[in-house]
Amino acid sequence: MSTATPQKFEFQAEIKQLLDIVIHSLYTEKEIFVRELVSNASDALEKLRHTQITEKDIFDDKLELEINVTTDDKAKTITLQDTGIGMTRAELVENLGTIAHSGSKQFLKAMGEGGAKNSNLIGQFGVGFYSAFMVAKSVKVYSHSWRGAEPGHVWSSDGSGSYEIEEADGQHRGSKIVIELKDDCADYASDWKIKEIVERYSAFVSFPINLNGKRVNTVQALWLRSKNEIKDEDYTEFYKFQSHAHDDPRLRLHFSADAPLSINALLFVPKDNTEKLGFSRLEASVALYCRKVLIDSKPKDLLPEWLRFLKGVVDSEDLPLNISRETMQDKALIAKLNTVITKRFLKFLEEEAKNRVDAYNEFYAEFGIFLKEGAAMDYTHKDSLVKLLRFESSLTEKGKTTSLADYVTRMGADQKEIYYLVGPNRAALESGPYLEGFKARNLEVIFCYEPVDEYVMGNVREFDSKKLTAADHADVKLSDLPKPEGALSEDDTKKLTAFIKESLGARVEEVKASDRLVDSPALAVNADKFMSPQMRRMMKAMKKDGADEPVKVNLEINPRSAVMKRLFETHATAPDRAKLVAEQILDNALISAGLLDDATPMVARLYKLLESV
Ligand code: FE6
User: Fold this and answer.
1) Residue at which a domain ends, from 163, 185, 215
2) Candidates 47, 69, 92, 175: which one to mutate for ligand 1, based on the most atoms within 8 Å of Cβ?
3) Can you give the CATH number for the domain in which 545 is found?
4) Same-domain status, 430 and 408
5) Range of 310's domain?
6) 150 with 279, same domain?
7) Of the residues 3, 227, 403, 561, which has the maximum number of CB atoms within 10 A of its CB?
8) Would you say the CB of residue 346 lies under 6 angstroms from ligand 1?
9) pLDDT, average across residues 5-30
10) Ligand 1 midpoint to CA 613 (Å)
11) Which residue's alpha carbon is nearest to atom 5 within ligand 1?
């Protein structure tokens, strides 16, 4: 049916309800009406392009496929015009009607389930058009279908309860939506404001968007194109644009998947880890798109916390703008995306580590801390992450690293555990007393230089069914070595350890002959099951309870050492001086272990000892 006279219709009850909700629940994000209308326009253009393939007789076939936005701040209007497929009179009416029966019902239901604050829901069921009424006194939709048979029409409404349709002459193909803005929304008639909104949400729409005659979107949605037609420079330019970055990306992963979800993703690792440079904690910044339209620029649960250094884009058609963090269904959808993308990125890193060793090691030096965080905290990805960790060790050269897998290949037949030591740097670990027993037995020890390593190793617990063991812990049992020449006898050693224990009293749990010392006179081993020296230091720094409790250490002595042999002689002849020496030996061992809290008593004691030299 077609008629030249205006016809007035009542909105159906459901549409009224819908309008009411859209206007009253999304008012905090009014600006998204631009995104919704641009997205509709883009869909209409996409459909036209498809139609052009199969149909010959297309109205206004010479028109450019584009979106024109014009603002008029005097008249307080904004107009969005497209050259897409357009709507016939019947479609104008029907689009409302269809929505009333399918989309709006679902929409209302989703809103009721707690999605009320989520502006993305409205696009999902094709009800995005109604967001115009958040800012509109009145809306006019001029439209001319690609089917040339009937004239154009204009649909108009003030959103209060009814709409009118009448014929409109002189229309080009497509739709033109004219919004007369409410007084308090007159901002949306300003050129710069709309420019900002279009750049934010619609930067990657494939059709030209012109704002007041000037092209706004110039960057392509690179993630949807095929890899072999994209040059490195294109990727870099895209990265800089999308991440507001000035560096070149260090690594990139461009991939797509169809199952279990349709995903097109383009992920970047920046050059530098800014957290390491002392900047504030990074925010999730891989943006979520649905068919080139921004859904969320900082979706919190799209990736695990430890991947917060990634930049880029994830686009999924399966979202249909439906990502409310509030509903269970949507949480599950995001979780699924998270799983797929994280697994894929881990696989990518594994390949990098294997095929481009130097680049991987450089990446690791900068961003390894995030992998450690993941290995310690993210139980689902722990195994893959542990494989990606790299450490120096007693067998690597300074500056070169090993994986735990490579460590395992070097383990001897009877080595059951993986040993590690935490300390400030290589020199400190190599010159400290802990390593020598392992060296003497050809046992490799992993070197950890970062304070978090203690925590990471403790949480990782094991690799390839081998326990990760702190080499400075009292429980470490090492094999017997051949008895060295010139050591104190077993009997004398017993006497000496008893004397030292008596001299030191409660300062040590136990004093015994060591099976892990070769050169050093003594070492302190941590005898506290619950607190490592590193943890203790951290707690002290944070002034936590328990940090002031006396340390629990065992003192292990080396019966071969000249110091011990001399002490054995002195303990019989000058017990007072021997006691001072025993105390000094403990303090020295505590210093090596990083466990000496207060050096003041030591200074006084040393002066006393120096008197007798
Ligand atoms: C959304 C108006 C009902 C086309 N082009 C554009 N928008 C479209 C369509 N919509 N539906 C089809 C819509 C309106 C009413 C729905 Br009334 F714009 N730009 Cl072909």
Assistant:
1) 215
2) 175
3) 1.20.120.790
4) yes
5) 222-361
6) no
7) 561
8) no
9) 83
10) 98
11) 44
Query: Given pLDDT bands bounded at 50, 70 and 90, which one contains residue 112?
Result: low
**Strand (E) or helix (H) holding 178:** strand 174-181
423 and 340 part of one domain:
no
Same domain for 61 and 193: yes
Task: Please tell me the predicted confidence (pLDDT) of residue 97.
Answer: 59
Q: Structure pTM?
A: 0.81
The answer to whether residue 370 is domain-embedded is no
Q: Are residues 426 and 351 in the same domain?
A: no
Under the banding of pLDDT at 50, 70 and 90, the label for residue 123 is very low
Q: Is the CB of 51 under 6 A from ligand 1?
A: no
Among 7, 92, 95, which residue has the most ligand 1 atoms within 8 Å of its CB, making it the best to mutate?
A: 95
* Most ligand 1 atoms within 8 A of CB, residue of 15, 129, 140 to mutate: 129
* CATH number where 26 lies: 3.30.565.10
CA of 214 to the centre of ligand 1 (A): 24
Atom of ligand 1 nearest to the CA of 86: 20
How many domains are there within the chain?
A: 4
8-state DSSP, 108: H
DSSP-assigned states of every residue in 60-85: TTTS---EEEEEETTTTEEEEEE-SS
Of ligand 1's listed atoms, the one at least distance from the Cα of 82 is 19
Rounded to whole angstroms, the Cα distance separating 436 from 394 reads: 10
* Structure-model confidence comparison of residues 113 and 207, the more confident one: 207
Read off the pLDDT of residues 175-227 as tens digits, 9 standing for 90 and up.
999 999 999 999 999 999 999 999 999 999 999 999 999 999 999 999 999 99
Ligand 1 atom with the smallest distance to the CA of 87 is 20
Ligand 1 in reach of 175 Cβ (< 6 A): yes
Q: Collapsing DSSP states into helix, strand and coil, what is residue 120?
A: coil
Do 161 and 249 lie in one domain? The reply is: no
The per-residue b/e assignment along 594-606, b for 16 or more CB within 10 angstroms, e otherwise, is: bbbeeeeebeebe
| Residue closest to 528 by CA, chosen among 508, 513, 557 | 508
CB distance 245 to 252 below 8 Å = no
Tokens at 304, concatenated: 């695990």
Strand order in the sheet with 553-557: 510-513, 553-557, 522-526
Q: In sequence order, which residues have a C-beta less than 8 Å from that of residue 554 and are 6 or more positions away?
A: 474, 508, 509, 510, 511, 512, 524, 525, 527
Query: Atom 1 in ligand 1: which residue has the minimum CA distance?
Result: 129
- Residues 230, 211 contacting (CB under 8 angstroms): no
Cα-to-centroid distance, 40 and ligand 1 (Å): 7
**Atom 20 of ligand 1: nearest residue by CA position:** 86
